[in-house]
Task: inverse folding
């Protein structure tokens, strides 16, 4: 393959993304530093995580400039993993509830099991 | 292979023997256009690696959700005391910034590679490798601190027993990826420095001609390692 089929982008693109990733990391660290809790904490963590991951994949890994065939070949199976996450979240909740029922039983009932 | 692929368009090639499998699969088809095949293969490898890391993180989620014992507070477990001041997650934050910086230098190394700027490419790859080695060093420090604190794969003094097994499994596998990446980076840096990519010198293992696409393929692996850390940082350390 004599012809180079490379990705050519100005260096400023990379420096900008690098800076943005620094800011986003600092923000997600701030979530912990200022001890935010509950849904605000979780939604901010997810937001900064998704933005960082998106920037790395799209710009650093050049996914934004690839052909759709490649993009879909990689992203669709990855998206299917969300089903696994959902299934195992149900399973985890079920395990927790079962343990709650079992551990809260009176000693007499527990002995019979 | 090239001779085997030459067949007249009308009749299909003979469908016998292992050779027919090879000829069929290599019969001048190209699904991923404008991408060197090495890069497409690296993407597919990374997809499989994504599944492995997802399985680790999902199993961590499942045991954490199912545990009736409180989960250790990562913010306190990984806190450092600097000059009498208690700073939560400091080491992990520094590790995050180091890994992101290594991704930045790697992205620029790829850019200079395609410009055939041998010197800058080699220097930037070496800087990336240095960041990566620093990261692994800090991780070793973190592991020894936790082990000294009594964290084991089967239990720990802070809370749910599954904390240790999840921690060592996930960060251990990620740290292994970083270590392999550093070795991979050093090999590519040596090739760039020696001019192997300019001279299309065959590699010692595969015999393939050197070219600057190798730098981008290496970069894909390295950015992936950084990408995985983004998820570990969010779910294991911050959650």
Result:
């Amino acid at each position: 393959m004599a012809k180079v089929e490379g990705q050519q982008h100005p260096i400023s693109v990379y420096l900008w993304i690098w800076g943005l990733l620094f800011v986003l990391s600092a923000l997600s660290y701030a979530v912990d530093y200022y001890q935010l809790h509950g849904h605000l904490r979780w939604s901010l963590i997810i937001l900064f995580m998704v933005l960082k991951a998106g920037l790395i994949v799209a710009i650093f890994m050049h996914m934004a400039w690839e052909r759709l065939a490649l993009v879909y070949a990689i992203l669709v199976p990855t998206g299917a993993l969300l089903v696994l996450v959902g299934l195992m979240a149900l399973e985890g909740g079920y395990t927790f509830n079962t343990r709650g029922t079992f551990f809260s039983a009176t000693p007499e009932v527990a002995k019979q099991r | 292979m090239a001779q085997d692929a030459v067949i007249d368009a009308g009749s299909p090639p003979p469908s016998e023997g292992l050779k027919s499998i090879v000829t069929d699969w290599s019969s001048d088809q190209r699904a991923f256009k404008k991408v060197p095949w090495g890069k497409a293969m690296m993407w597919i490898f990374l997809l499989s690696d994504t599944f492995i890391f997802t399985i680790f993180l999902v199993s961590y989620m499942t045991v954490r959700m199912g545990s009736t014992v409180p989960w250790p507070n990562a913010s306190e477990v990984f806190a450092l005391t600097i000059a009498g001041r208690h700073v939560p997650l400091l080491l992990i934050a520094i590790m995050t910034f180091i890994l992101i910086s290594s991704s930045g230098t790697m992205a620029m190394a790829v850019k200079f590679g395609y410009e055939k700027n041998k010197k800058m490419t080699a220097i930037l790859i070496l800087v990336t490798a240095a960041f990566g080695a620093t990261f692994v060093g800090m991780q070793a420090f973190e592991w020894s601190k936790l082990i000294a604190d009594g964290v084991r794969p089967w239990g720990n003094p802070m809370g749910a027993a599954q904390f240790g097994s999840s921690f060592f499994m996930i960060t251990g596998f990620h740290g292994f990826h970083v270590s392999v990446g550093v070795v991979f980076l050093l090999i590519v840096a040596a090739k760039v420095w020696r001019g192997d990519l300019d001279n299309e010198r065959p590699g010692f293992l595969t015999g393939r001609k050197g070219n600057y696409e190798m730098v981008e393929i290496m970069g894909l692996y390295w950015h992936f390692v950084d990408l995985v850390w983004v998820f570990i940082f969010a779910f294991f350390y911050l959650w």
Summary: Chain B touches chain A through 60 residues (CB under 8 Å). The radius of gyration of chain B is 23 Å. Residues 36-238 of chain B form a domain with the Four Helix Bundle (Hemerythrin (Met), subunit A) fold (CATH 1.20.120.80).
